[in-house]
């Protein structure tokens, strides 16, 4: 059970990390587009 719980936490952390990374990349891309416009 402990292993499954740890796995769920790790998966949640990874999902959150990927989501934050996507937000950061999208934000940088938006800033670059605004700078070019």
Structure explained in plain terms:
With 37 residues, the protein is mainly α. It has one helix and no strands. It has one domain (1-37). The chain is 95% helix and 0% strand. The model has no long low-confidence stretch (mean pLDDT 91). The radius of gyration is 16 Å and the shape is rod-shaped.
Features:
1 helix; single chain; mainly alpha; rod-shaped
List the helices and strands and how they pair.
Blueprint: H1 2-36
Q: Between the first and last Cα atoms, what is the distance in angstroms? A: 54 Å
User: Given the C-alpha coordinates, what overall shape results?
Assistant: rod-shaped
Query: Biggest sheet, open or closed, and with what strands and sense?
Result: none
Helix content: over 70%
Number of structural units classed as domains: 1
Radius of gyration: 16 Å
**Which class of secondary structure composition applies to the elements?**
mainly alpha
Q: Beta-strand level of the residues, as a percent range?
A: under 5%
Summarize the structure.
With 37 residues, the chain is an all-alpha fold. The protein has one domain.
